[in-house]
Design a protein that fits this description.
The chain is about 55% helix and about 10% strand. The chain has about 375 residues and is of the alpha/beta class. The strands form two sheets. A four-stranded parallel beta sheet has the order 2-1-3-4, with helices on both faces. α5 packs parallel to α7, α8 packs across α14 and α12 crosses α17.
Length: about 375
């Protein structure tokens, strides 16, 4: 077994360590903050001595229970989030001391009203524009409120020095992930798109960042070194695909369909990929100002106009030398659904192929997606 295979196997074997780790942290007295979205400033929780746990929202199993309170024609991510909380089937929700939510789409915002009856909940009111001076001021104000809330939950003041340390640590993790993603820009990538996705999932539930970030940095160096020494895994000379749109955590079937059809996913422009983690917090500025600037610049479809996402798509298409874009749209996700028209026009203006996949968390459309993906890759 080659070096790269060994590293990938380690990641896969330990992807399910999160529930035990969050239980141990909770029992040791560490405050656990539940989150759902990349707009949540991780650095504030870390500076308060807390850990953040991304809450379960990737399965169709709790959706039936959620639909007793929520409409059926609602995004599966929202219904799964609420259903897990309602049924207490998410270990991260079970052990978290509070949830920090956010006003992204209307469906999540209203769902959080119901969730607040199940767990203490703080809402970050995200501005839905990023181009005006007042947008930045609103974001700073909301982050100050979040800072004060986390201080109360953790029973510990957040100092600027601690916040700067947390910013630097999170930037190191972002840079390490960026270095991992950059490997996919090589003509013969050392990792498949599914494996890159698994690295992201693995790091999401590693709670001791002061130990885990250096580990990630070392693994990226080992993978690059093995590749430079000639280790290949038959991932070259395949059509190169970017995935954009809604979070892919609950629809890994789309990634699998792309790669089973003979292509390779080389870039993720969505939550958990380049959308937030690909960009750093400015460490030279006042920390609260820098956090507000960085998180406000996330190119999410809730923003109007969403110029940051369009600029990112152009840059990533060139950097990763893509041949096509697959946009993942979760059923009833209205903001991404409307924006898909602009994304398609942009991708086609770049001379790249475009495919929209609308799906949910069920397995019923796997065969249909596979058939469409075969035809899409065949065109390239």
């Amino acid at each position: 077994m080659g070096t790269i295979d060994q590293i990938v196997q380690h990641v896969r074997e330990h992807m399910a360590d999160g529930p035990v780790a969050v239980k141990e942290a909770h029992e040791a007295g560490t405050k656990v903050i539940g989150t759902y979205c990349t707009y949540m400033p991780w650095e504030l929780a870390d500076a308060a001595g807390a850990i953040t746990a991304v809450l379960c929202a990737k399965s169709d199993k709790p959706i039936a229970a959620a639909e007793e309170h929520l409409p059926r024609n609602l995004c599966p991510l929202i219904k799964a989030s609420y259903g897990h909380a309602l049924l207490d089937t998410c270990p991260y929700f079970h052990f978290c001391d509070a949830v920090v939510a956010e006003t992204t789409c209307d469906g999540k915002k209203k769902m959080f009203e119901l969730m607040s009856a199940l767990k203490p909940l703080h809402m970050i009111r995200i501005p839905h524009s990023s181009s005006r001076p007042e947008d930045l001021e609103q974001m700073k104000s909301e982050f100050w409120k979040t800072r004060e809330y986390l201080e109360k939950v953790a029973g510990r003041a957040i100092t600027d020095d601690a916040l700067r340390e947390s910013i630097a640590l999170r930037n190191r993790e972002r840079e390490a992930l960026r270095s991992l993603w950059e490997l996919s820009a090589l003509d013969e990538p050392p990792l498949s798109g599914l494996e890159v996705h698994q690295f992201g999932e693995y790091m999401q539930y590693r709670f001791d960042k002061r130990k885990d970030v250096p580990w990630l940095e070392e693994q990226v160096k080992r993978i690059r070194s093995a590749w430079e020494s000639g280790e290949r895994r038959n991932l070259g000379k395949k059509p190169r695909i970017m995935i954009t749109g809604c979070p892919t955590g609950g629809v890994v079937k789309v990634i699998e369909a792309v790669e089973n059809a003979g292509a390779v996913v080389v870039c993720y422009e969505n939550c958990g990929g380049q959308k937030e983690l690909g960009y750093l917090v400015d460490e030279t500025k006042d920390p609260m100002e820098a956090l507000a600037e960085k998180y406000l610049a996330i190119g999410c479809s809730i923003m109007s106009p969403d110029t940051n996402r369009m600029d990112s798509l152009r840059a990533l298409a060139e950097r990763y030398k893509i041949d096509g874009v697959v946009e993942v749209l979760l059923t009833a996700c209205h903001t991404y659904a409307v924006e898909s028209y602009s994304v398609r026009n942009l991708v086609q203006s770049l001379g790249k192929k475009y495919l929209l996949v609308e799906t949910d968390y069920s397995e019923g459309d796997k065969e249909q997606i596979a058939t469409r993906m075969d035809a899409f890759v065949e065109m390239m």
